[in-house]
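Figure 6 in text form: structure in, sequence out.
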């Protein structure tokens, strides 16, 4: 490199590098020391350097520099003053320890003159990770902090994503040293801005920097959530004992004197304690840090006990902590967050007087807070009541709040509290009975019975004055308990006549939005798709959460604008694809809608390594990729075909873009599209045309549309005509798969999966389709289902939903192990689709209704209600599939009880009873101790009563006839009695 001392300047030419810098670079001696040398000392140093030559030790760091770094140093030697140049040299040497002194000697102008060179070095070292480079980057971080003269610029520099992670304790200490001589107000501004920019990206070193800048400047303590959490995370650990202290605005030695302080001493004397403690009850994420496990191993107790100890000493205000903890429990939060504040209350050990003074707050915790919080408040209030310190109106308020909650544990505890209150004081019997009647409408039938028993027990002491109110409340009881209620209350209880199911109204599909009007709109929507796509490293796939209708509009928009104005589209896409949202979003394996980036890459003409290609692979070209599932293979081929279209002369639009949001195409619209292709001489893509045929709603084709289709002259027109004349793709005819040796190892017990699944012979389409659709139409052997990547599946065959359900069967059968992102969430979309709802779809419903995951159960209930409202539900078939899935352990009674109770609540009692009546023999044949089985019988009894079902179920009658008083037997007897009328 020219100018670093290895070549001599030509005779008579001006030396572009300052002699001091040249000697420093040659010898490795710091520039600041060379400036102090006398002329004789410099001569000696130069002689030593000449004797060592190129292989001298002083050359080591020069040889380690990147070419870009050498260029920066050469330019700095020409343009900077010697003092400023010394800063660049120290950075190149990685000598961060020399920088505070070098920076302090610079004028403001000299500091600013260094900045362009420092920023160039940041870019040059961005992708370099060697150990020596780390040293230079740390020095670069210190130098930039010292050379920037604006507070905002300093904050931006020290939080720079390429440098901030290098700020270990020594580096942060040197940054603090270069900032320590600045004006107080300026230091406070830096502290505030660093805190604001940090968000959640805090560690003890950044905390140290901001902490000491606040103390140096005397500015207010940052109120940022990140600062508060960082302060809590680090104050209990001993690292803060090594931090320099601040005395009278000057950095001094650590106050610990090199010894480790106790946690209580450290926190007690912390200058930020009084400012931070009120914020503990305002920012999120404090709760987990309050729990005892969040402390160093050598510390017996954590924050809860430390704060309580400081209250006992009088260092903190006990009343403020009590009120703050209770107020925080009133606000929404995750159970793990709120648990810490409950433990803080336990550590503070509030007295009976302190809790009695906060009765109103405790009552406010009962209706809506998570169960552990409400349960804690309930226990405290119950103790106050037993001590005679709770008014009757407060007992009534507490009962009204709790008895409407769904958690049976809380409700049972409240009924027990009412029972004890009435036993202690017989004058409260009427109050307790009326309060307990609030539970008559509870969803748990066992709770209703318990409340009725309480009323029966205390009614004699309550007197006749409460009977009218109790009779009115008894109308909310389940029908199977109203007879007993009439006996207890001595009067008729209103009963409901059987009613047909009244289901919620469902809306049909909407027309698709118009295609994007401009290239900029296309680019924006492409970027939104990529932003909604993440790479799942565990499963080796890209997961897209974008709606299929949005994807179809974008794909069509890319083709339309590539046809109209390719240059304008390229310009719009180039601006969009340079954003960070593309980074790491798309993976190499099973296809997702995020793979639209491959089409974008073709439009941009990129080769491997471009900003789009860098984070993805060409479709199907990665040998390590697993073969995509059949419906994802369709997406792969569509994208590959569209990519060819946009580089080889794009057609005016795609044929397969849906006209309705459920994926269907109006026949008249497809006829017009093919007619326009014929008019302009465009040739449709084979996959695009095949996909359009599978989407066209042949059932909606009128005679005039068919007549226009017969006028089409192209091959595409003739194929469409044949398709419409045949009524589209035939419905699949399913049979239960035969038993095979293939087993699902998750189930154990040697249960073959095939006995639960369906298969069909390959469907024969009315005309030829692209080869990729062959695996879609042949579902004899269901294929592997990739997790998550199913969003577009209903759009592949939107008029034959049973065919899509066939491909989803592996997701159905593994529902016990599925998460909320599984293919089960497609059930509502299939219910809203077209075509027959056959055994495969009903199998999916059955498995979803009995799933462990609440999100999957909700999707199954929604699908059941939609199917029932549209007349597509076969309750008897659903019952048979429930029985089959139960035999193979796919359905859990607890999950099924939750689902069918919800479905019945929304008006599907008749369908629920019909399905359960067919499934009960299989359910009762399982382990009688299975959790949720009594709840299933309870829902069955209520549904049977509501729909007026009659006729015994042999298995239920046999169970009801057994001796015993378990809840299972009680619910069986209720169901038997309901069926006997």
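Output sequence:
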């Amino acid at each position: 490199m020219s100018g670093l001392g290895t070549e001599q300047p030509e005779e008579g030419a001006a030396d572009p590098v300052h002699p001091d810098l040249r000697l420093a670079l040659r010898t490795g001696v710091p520039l600041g020391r060379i400036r102090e040398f006398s002329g004789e000392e410099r001569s000696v140093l130069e002689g030593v350097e000449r004797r060592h030559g190129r292989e001298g030790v002083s050359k080591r760091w020069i040889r380690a520099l990147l070419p870009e770094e050498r260029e920066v140093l050469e330019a700095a030697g020409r343009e900077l003053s010697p003092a400023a140049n010394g800063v660049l040299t120290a950075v190149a040497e990685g000598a961060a320890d020399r920088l505070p002194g070098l920076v302090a000697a610079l004028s403001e102008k000299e500091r600013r003159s260094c900045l362009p060179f420092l920023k160039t070095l940041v870019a040059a070292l961005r992708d370099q990770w060697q150990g020596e480079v780390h040293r230079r980057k740390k020095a670069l971080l210190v130098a930039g902090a010292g050379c920037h003269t604006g507070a905002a610029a300093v904050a931006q520099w020290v939080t720079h994503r390429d440098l901030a992670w290098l700020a270990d304790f020594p580096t942060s200490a040197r940054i603090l040293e270069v900032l320590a001589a600045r004006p107080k107000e300026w230091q406070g501004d830096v502290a505030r801005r660093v805190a604001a920019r940090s968000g959640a990206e805090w560690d003890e070193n950044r905390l140290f920097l901001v902490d000491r800048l606040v103390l140096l400047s005397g500015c207010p303590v940052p109120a940022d959530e990140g600062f508060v959490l960082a302060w809590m995370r680090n104050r209990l650990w001993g690292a803060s004992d090594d931090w320099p202290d601040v005395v009278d605005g000057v950095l001094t030695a650590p106050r610990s004197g090199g010894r480790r302080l106790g946690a209580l001493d450290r926190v007690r004397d912390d200058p930020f304690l009084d400012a931070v403690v009120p914020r503990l009850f305002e920012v999120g994420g404090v709760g987990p840090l309050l729990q005892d496990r969040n402390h160093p191993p050598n510390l017996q107790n954590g924050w809860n006990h430390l704060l309580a100890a400081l209250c006992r000493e009088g260092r903190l205000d006990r009343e403020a902590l009590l009120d703050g903890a209770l107020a925080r429990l009133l606000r929404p939060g995750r159970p793990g967050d709120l648990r810490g504040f409950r433990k803080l209350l336990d550590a503070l050990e509030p007295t009976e007087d302190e809790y009695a003074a906060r009765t109103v707050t405790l009552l406010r915790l009962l209706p809506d807070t998570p169960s552990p919080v409400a349960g804690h408040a309930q226990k405290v209030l119950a103790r106050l009541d037993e001590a005679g310190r709770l008014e009757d109106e407060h007992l009534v308020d507490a009962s009204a709040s709790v008895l409407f909650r769904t958690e049976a544990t809380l409700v049972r505890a409240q009924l027990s509290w009412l029972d004890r209150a009435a036993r202690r004081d017989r004058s409260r019997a009427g109050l307790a009975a009326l309060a307990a009647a609030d539970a008559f409408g509870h969803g748990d039938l066992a709770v209703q019975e318990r409340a009725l028993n309480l009323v029966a027990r205390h009614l004699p002491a309550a007197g006749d004055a409460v009977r009218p109110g109790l009779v009115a409340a008894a109308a909310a009881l389940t029908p199977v308990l109203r007879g007993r209620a009439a006996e207890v209350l001595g009067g008729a209880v209103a009963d409901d006549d059987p009613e047909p199911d009244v289901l919620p109204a469902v809306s049909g599909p909407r027309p698709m939005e118009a295609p994007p009007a401009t290239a900029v709109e296309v680019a924006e929507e492409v970027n939104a798709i990529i932003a909604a796509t993440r790479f799942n490293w565990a499963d080796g796939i890209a997961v897209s959460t974008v709606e299929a209708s949005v994807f179809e509009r974008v794909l069509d928009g890319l083709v339309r604008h590539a046809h109209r104005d390719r240059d304008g589209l390229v310009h719009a896409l180039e601006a969009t694809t340079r954003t960070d949202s593309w980074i790491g979003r798309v993976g190499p394996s099973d296809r997702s809608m995020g793979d639209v980036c491959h089409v974008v890459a073709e439009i941009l003409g990129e080769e491997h390594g471009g900003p789009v290609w860098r984070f993805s692979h060409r479709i199907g070209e990665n040998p390590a990729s697993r073969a995509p599932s059949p419906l994802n293979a369709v997406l792969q081929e569509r994208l590959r075909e569209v990519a060819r279209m946009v580089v080889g002369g794009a057609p005016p639009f795609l044929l397969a873009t849906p006209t309705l949001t459920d994926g269907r195409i109006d026949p008249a619209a497809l006829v017009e599209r093919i007619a326009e292709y014929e008019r302009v001489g465009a040739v449709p893509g084979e996959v695009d045309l095949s996909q359009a045929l599978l989407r066209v709603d042949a059932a909606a084709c009128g005679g005039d549309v068919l007549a226009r289709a017969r006028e089409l002259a192209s091959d595409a027109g003739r194929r469409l005509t044949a398709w419409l004349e045949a009524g589209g793709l035939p419905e699949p005819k399913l049979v239960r798969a035969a038993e095979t040796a293939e087993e699902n190892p998750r189930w154990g017990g040697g249960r073959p999966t095939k006995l639960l699944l369906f298969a069909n012979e390959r469907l024969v389409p009315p005309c030829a389709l692209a080869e990729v659709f062959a695996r879609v139409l042949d579902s004899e052997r269901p294929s592997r289902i990739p997790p998550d990547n199913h969003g577009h599946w209903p759009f592949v065959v939107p008029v034959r939903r049973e065919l899509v359900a066939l491909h989803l069967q592996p997701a159905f059968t593994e529902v016990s192990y599925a998460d909320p992102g599984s293919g089960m969430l497609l059930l509502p979309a299939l219910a809203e689709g077209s075509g027959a709802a056959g055994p495969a779809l009903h199998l999916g419903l059955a498995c979803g209704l009995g799933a462990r995951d609440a999100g999957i159960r909700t999707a199954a209930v929604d699908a059941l209600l939609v199917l029932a409202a549209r007349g597509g539900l076969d309750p008897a078939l659903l019952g048979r599939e429930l029985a089959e899935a139960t035999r193979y352990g796919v359905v859990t009674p607890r999950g099924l009880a939750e689902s069918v109770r919800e479905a019945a609540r929304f008006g599907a009692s008749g369908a629920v009873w019909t399905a359960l009546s067919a499934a009960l023999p299989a359910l009762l044949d399982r382990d009688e101790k299975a959790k949720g089985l009594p709840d299933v019988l309870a829902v069955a009894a209520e549904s049977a009563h509501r729909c007026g079902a009659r006729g015994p179920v042999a298995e239920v009658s046999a169970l009801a006839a057994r001796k015993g008083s378990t809840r299972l037997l009680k619910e069986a007897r209720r169901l038997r009695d309901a069926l006997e009328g």
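Caption detail: The chain is about 55% helix and 0% strand.
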